[in-house]
Amino acid sequence: MTDTPEPTDLTPQGAATVPATLPDAWAGLRAFTPARIGLGRSGISQPTGALLEFSLAHAQARDAVHTTLDAASLAVELALAGFESLHAQSQATDRAQYLRRPDLGRRLNESSRERLRAARPDTPERPELIFVLADGLSALAITRHALPMLIAARERLPDWSIGPVVIAEQSRVALGDEVGELLGARAVALLVGERPGLSSPDSLGIYLTWSPQVGRTDAERNCISNIRPEGLSYMQAAGTLSGLLQGARRLGSTGVRLKDEQPNARLTESGAG
């Protein structure tokens, strides 16, 4: 029998040894953003991990669009926090019709219209501001963020008379105009679940309209967007809303005439600028 030869090192002398796993140069940057950066590749395709993460995010976005709002539970939470609430619904009868017919989500159904008309105070002193909680395209955003956002706003608006909070199901932004008009408010702030993104299925937006009435256009509103812990904080959004409301009170208008003149809260807090 012959002895089995010992394995030899075939690496040419002086050649660099290639590590089994290369360091991920994007790992540090990914810690600062939920955006999909530096996904890598496997051949000409995405690696399996990145593909699975994308599929999960897509499913979460679809779920956010189709999930319905638990208005009863939200009303209980509002009451515990000291907010009176009213319930309303658009002319869309269910989620499927709401998604197919945006126009129906912009107007109240008849029973809601009568309910709000009956809730309007008989005295000349009517609320200056009405908050509307609209499920929009993400009821998840309202469920998670509406109440803490309302609490933060209430703290920043001590000199404003605030009426009952209206929980509006199957609602688009323009529904707030009819709600504010029926309740006789000077301004309406509609909190709405924004269209989900692949990294933000629960983003909340606020649309502010002065002298709300049916027929107002988007050019007559101001918008505060991306309110959530990973985006604009509740206190930052409340500060922006307060500043816009004070400006609207002076101008008697919102929209293109009203500019956000608040300092950038992130820069102020960090001492920059």
Structural topology:
Layout: H1 27-30, H2 48-66, H3 71-80, E1 85-89, H4 95-100, H5 110-119, E2 129-134, H6 139-156, E3 165-169, H7 175-183, E4 187-193, E5 204-210, E6 221-227, H8 234-251, H9 265-270
Parallel strand pairs: 1-3, 2-3, 2-4
Antiparallel strand pairs: 4-5, 5-6
Helix pairs in contact: 6-8
The share of residues in extended strands comes to: 5-15%
Q: Which CATH-level-2 architecture?
A: 3-Layer(aba) Sandwich
Q: How far from one another are the termini?
A: 83 Å
Largest sheet: 6 strands, mixed
Structural class: alpha/beta
What's the CATH H-level superfamily name? Ethanolamine ammonia-lyase light chain (EutC)
Total number of helical segments? 9
CATH class: Alpha Beta
Number of strands: 6
Rg (C-alpha, Å): 26 Å
Strand order of the largest sheet: 1-3-2-4-5-6
The chain-level mean pLDDT equals 87
Q: How many structural units, i.e. domains?
A: 1
Tell the overall outline: globular
